[in-house]
Design a protein that fits this description.
- The complex is a heterodimer of chains A (249) and B (365).
- Chain A has 249 residues and is an all-alpha fold.
- Chain A has a single domain, classed as Ferritin, CATH 1.20.1260.
- In chain A, 71% of the residues lie in helices and 0% in strands.
- The longest helix of chain A is centred in the middle third of the chain and has 31 residues.
- The radius of gyration of chain A is 17 Å and the shape is globular.
- Chain B is α/β, with parallel strands linked by helices and 365 residues long.
- Chain B has two domains: 211 residues, no CATH class; 142 residues, 3-Layer(aba) Sandwich (Rossmann fold), CATH 3.40.50.
- In chain B, the strands form four sheets. Chain B has a six-stranded mixed beta sheet. In chain B, strands 8-7-6-9-10-11 form a six-stranded parallel beta sheet, with helices on one face.
- The chains are: A mainly alpha (249), B alpha/beta (365).
- At the A-B interface, helix 5, helix 6, helix 7 and helix 8 of A face helix 1, helix 2, helix 3 and strand 2 of B.
């Protein structure tokens, strides 16, 4: 699988809302780098050479996505600084790493392809609707790329669930409590636990309204994508509704 | 669905498709789902989150008939936000109803009751719904009509009101429920007043009734009627409780059968007897998992639900998985009598009278 994203010539311009896009891009770049690290770690626990190649290829694609976002920032005249050690992202990486240490290939896929991908897909698609044209193109194209990853992984996860649904659902719930709780805090309307350590200065959430976005909208779209993904896998709707209802706000 | 889960999945006879009538109702459902160990979500969070939830099963429902029959089903919420029922959201809401119908089909439901606005949005066009080989849809409107008519007759009897000398006003007269009520009650009252927004549909309904010798008056504006009505049925498809009744008899009997309710809090009905109509009570037994008793059915009496939802349950208990109500304005008194007797056979009766203030106490007229 190859990324369809191309770096475009960099012509710098400045937008009035550039500081907001700078923070939005910082979250996106950080997310992509975390994904790249996750896939690289996943490759280390794969037995099948094909799976190893695929994981490394995904890692490369995610790094390229990060590079494209960084380039988009430069074009806008802002420096985008990623922080994979930012409070929430670090916790998510640690959750993933625990699965790697347990050589839990399916657990890793659940975290990356269901949870993080739902968040990325929904957020990128929403940003693509309101961002300035070239930035919208970047987010839209990367969202399409991510969708392709997710579709591929879904086939593997569906087969896994078909083999033993109760076991699969229990594992998913355990990971939901761990990872989705962190993501829900990241997506909350207000950062109640202090600065996320990714935004450049103060929290960007209150300012998102200036670019026709909001934390509530990004959270809603992400949860919707997550629920739909779980529906596709065949999890009972009333069960996943309860899971989502119990997330922190 | 995975094989292991499929083996354990309970049989689903019926699905009830609904939507929250109020934000309070939605918040209460979330509160139960969150459980006692989590603080309830603030109202603003509920309003932010609910519109994003794809339609899905909220709980499982087990019902028992007084005749010994049992049926299992699911309650599926389309999560249409209570403040987005108006015309500007029709397309979005239709998508939700279709998704709820698909969810019912996936659950394996053999009959699906389309509660409240779900059937109004579909407008009898069942072809707009996804196709399930073993699933049929019913609007549930026939049982709603049965309970409205029963309510009017019983309350009139309790009050000593003579229906034969009464003027009956039906607001929302050309709708499936409104026209069904008129066909049942017109022969029993002195005259009928038909109110709706569409003048042509009103004219056609009036012509049908006049051909049967009914004294009919029609208007698209409530203030145009020549005399105040003394029995009123509110069955309009209103997205919110906004109906004002300013020209009814001071001691009128008013049945508010809307879902959501029609009558505005500002309606001048201080001396009138107002009750919520179209509701029935399951006397054989009903259980929810998770336990949403009194949450999904927020009424002052136990085991009360809208007739539109109860119709699917009654037909399941009867083993009649057929599209009993198709929502095209064709409800006849014979149809109404048939569903009434099916429901009664399984212990589903007219609900005790109540309104927004609680149980209705009546006075002799």
């Amino acid at each position: 699988m190859e990324s369809t994203i191309e770096l475009k010539p960099q012509t710098e311009c400045t937008l009035p809302a550039a500081p907001i896009w700078q923070d939005v891009l910082a979250q996106a770049v950080t997310g992509e780098l975390v994904a790249a690290m996750n896939y690289s770690a996943l490759a280390a626990i794969c037995d099948d050479p094909g799976e190893i190649d695929e994981a490394l290829e995904h890692a490369a694609i995610e790094r390229r996505h990060a590079a494209v976002f960084l380039a988009a920032g430069r074009r806008m005249g802002v420096e985008v600084i990623a922080n994979v050690d930012g409070k929430h992202w670090k916790k998510i990486r640690e959750s993933f790493q625990r699965r790697v240490e347990e050589r839990d290939y399916i657990g890793c896929l659940i975290i990356q392809e269901i949870m993080l991908e739902s968040f990325a897909l929904a957020s990128y698609n929403r940003v693509a609707k309101v961002a300035p044209e070239y930035l919208a193109d970047v987010f839209g194209a990367i969202a399409a790329d991510e969708q392709e990853h997710a579709d591929h992984a879904m086939a593997i996860l569906k087969a896994e669930r078909d083999a033993n649904a109760p076991l699969f659902d229990d594992k998913l719930h355990e990971l939901h409590l761990d990872v989705m709780t962190t993501l829900a805090k990241m997506l909350a309307k207000e950062c109640k636990d202090g600065h996320c350590e990714v935004c450049q200065s103060s929290c960007v959430k209150p300012d998102l309204i200036e670019v026709n976005l909001s934390a509530a909208l990004l959270r809603g779209a992400s949860l919707q994508q997550y629920l739909r993904t779980l529906d596709t896998l065949g999890l009972p709707g009333e069960v996943t509704l309860t899971w989502v209802a119990q997330l922190p706000v | 669905m995975g094989r292991a889960v499929a083996r354990l999945a309970p049989r689903v006879d019926f699905a009830l498709v609904g939507h929250p009538e109020t934000w309070r109702a939605a918040a209460d459902v979330f509160s139960v789902l969150r459980g006692p160990e989590h603080t309830p979500l603030p109202d603003d969070e509920i309003k932010d989150i609910l519109p994003w939830i794809p339609p899905r099963t909220v709980c499982r429902v087990d019902v028992q008939s007084i005749a010994g029959a049992k049926a299992r089903g699911v309650y599926i919420d389309s999560f249409i936000p209570p403040d987005r029922l108006d015309a500007s959201c029709v397309r979005e809401n239709l998508t939700r109803v279709r998704a709820a119908a698909a969810s019912a089909i996936n659950a394996g439901a053999r009959i699906v009751s389309l509660g409240g606005f779900s059937s109004i949005l579909i407008e009898g066009n069942f072809d707009a719904l996804p196709i399930g080989q073993n699933t049929v849809f019913t609007t549930g409107n026939t049982l709603t009509v049965a309970f409205i008519v029963q309510g009017i007759e019983r309350m009139s009897a309790l009050q000593g009101r003579n229906l034969r000398t009464s003027t009956l006003l039906v607001v929302g007269a050309t709708g499936d429920v409104g026209s069904g009520c008129i066909r049942c009650l017109a022969p029993k009252v002195r005259r009928v007043q038909l109110h709706a927004r569409n003048a042509e549909r009103l004219r056609r309904l009036a012509a049908e009734l006049e051909a049967e010798g009914v004294d009919v008056e029609v208007a698209t504006d409530l203030s145009q009627f020549s005399r105040p009505a003394d029995v009123v049925i509110c069955a309009a498809s209103l997205p919110s409780s906004s109906l004002l009744l300013d020209r009814i008899a001071p001691d009128a009997l008013v049945c508010d059968a809307g879902y959501p309710k029609n009558l505005s809090a500002d309606a001048e009905t201080s001396r009138a007897t107002v009750f919520f109509g179209g509701l029935g009570q399951i006397t054989g037994g009903i259980a929810f998992e998770p336990d949403l008793h009194g949450i999904l059915n927020r009424h002052p009496f136990p085991n009360v639900a809208h007739g539109c939802l109860l119709e699917g349950i009654a037909l399941s208990l009867e083993g009649r998985f057929e599209p009993f109500s198709r929502g095209r304005g064709g409800l006849t008194p014979d149809h109404v009598a048939e569903i009434e007797s099916i429901a009664a056979r399984h212990g589903i009766y007219l609900a005790p009278f109540f309104n927004g203030d609680g149980p209705v106490t009546f006075t002799m007229k």
